[in-house]
Amino acid sequence: MDLPLPLLLSTLAVSAIVCYVLFFRAGKARRRAPLPPGPRGWPVLGNLPQLGGKTHQTLHVMTKVYGPLLRLRFGSSDVVVAGSAAVAEQFLRIHDAKFSNRPPNSGGEHMAYNYQDVVFGPYGPRWRAMRKVCAVNLFSARALDDLRAVREREAALMVRSLVEASAPRGAPAVPLGKAVNVCTTNALSRAAVGRRVFAAGSEVAKEFKEIVLEVMQVGGVLNVGDFVPALRWLDPQGVVAKMKKLHRRYDDMMNAIIGERRAGVKPAGEAGKDLLGLLLAMMQEEQPLAGGEEDKITDTDIKALTLNLFVAGTDTTSTIAEWAVAELIRNPDILKQAQEELDAVVGRGRLVSESDLPRLTFFNAVIKETFRLHPSTPLSLPRMASQECEVAGYRIPKGAQLLVNVWGIARDPALWPDPLEYRPARFLPGGSHADLDVKGSHFGLIPFGAGRRICAGLSWGLRMVTVTAATLVHAFDWELPAGQTPDKLNMEEAFTLLLQRAEPLMVHPVPRLLPSAYEIA
Ligand code: HEM
């Protein structure tokens, strides 16, 4: 049968278009990068049941099986895990702009004033302005120096409390982490709102302490409802109910503190500047937060920011100092070397001052090595892909959550010789990592994260950890409770999101300085 020519031509043209489209599509599908590899999960819950309590350890093991870029499912959420320095650098340097938001979660919604804070707030001008307010008023070199006396005084009070607790003959061993936590929390709360969380006496102080401790505790819980929408309304762990209740108490407490300050009342003995006073002055002068009329600073901003400081800046700091002392007790030769340096720089007639820190070369290496083996947030804080992208040859779906295994990366034998050995000398001149710091540019050691959302309180955290740990190591020799020996000290990690010790460090501190060094003016 002969087809008329126009019909034949149009049939050929349509066939050619269909073939082209099919071929092009197939080519495109062929070129699309694969998803990263990872273990199969369970229905509904995905890989959540496989994580165990020490998620960073499980993910480190999975990295050895599946490679340095893993894909998992937490309930209905896609999760990718960076398990090597090279992959972390891809995410946090090359593709950082696409990962500069955090995934939605119940803490951001119910505790942090519906994401009106710095930790969970969306990346953008308001977040940038809030970070700037903190950077200028709390964390700049000048602000840090202005608040130096606050940190040093709290460190001296910590020393005093340890001397008193261990003075009576036969006194029981003291939990060191608790003493350090009182110090770091009080220093930060004085800088933030001009009052101590741990203060003897008043009912207000008791309520303040209870709320802040609960806020820190709830902030560390992984809520399954965040990942499994079907379980959200059930709130199986009761986390959301707890958060809502606590939020109301926190809000009432902060309203009272702000109200008092507006009325000109400041707690006794707190004459210096604090963040609350500076923010209220900005409000009074009607200074915009981010440049626009609608960006005026509000009471909610102040409350959300203060909450961030308490949750992000207290336990993170004290746990590292506790781990540092534990490592030194376990390694007496390194402890001796650290004390010899401290005696040479500081002498035995006074406590450590922050102005001594730049001359403590060995001790600064001790701190870096402690951050390497015991980073406070072993999986950093999650980020989220704001668009689909390709990283290290794999496709990362839009909305995927990113976890960076900071803990695992710092134990990678390809980067760190004898990674499980506590060896500060690797950071000394001539050592394998002499020029490396912890400030986010060396991806093998990123305890504070990296990129746009790197820890906002890095400068405070690093200074506080160093001065607290140096003060302890200089002021005391350390004895363990009867029957314990340094080589058998338990260095297990607890089952929490924050890297705490499974067993608190119990010690007998033995003063080693001249008695006058322990007197407080
Ligand atoms: C040793 C102490 C500390 C460690 C190890 C630490 C670690 C971290 C890490 C890993 C992040 C996430 C970074 C990222 O996403 O790349 C972070 C975020 C943050 N940290 Fe810290 N932190 C410490 C101390 C502090 C202190 C003292 C403060 C405040 C007083 C603070 C405030 C914050 C805030 C506000 C964020 C959120 C930043 C943002 O999302 O823009 N941190 N921290």
UniProtKB/TrEMBL annotation:
Annotated TM spans: 6-24
Keyword Kinase carried by entry: no
Subcellular localization, as worded in the UniProt entry: Membrane
Highest taxon of source: Eukaryota
Record keyword Iron present: yes
Predominant cellular place of this UniProt entry's protein: membrane
Protein name: flavonoid 3'-monooxygenase
Origin species: Indosasa hispida
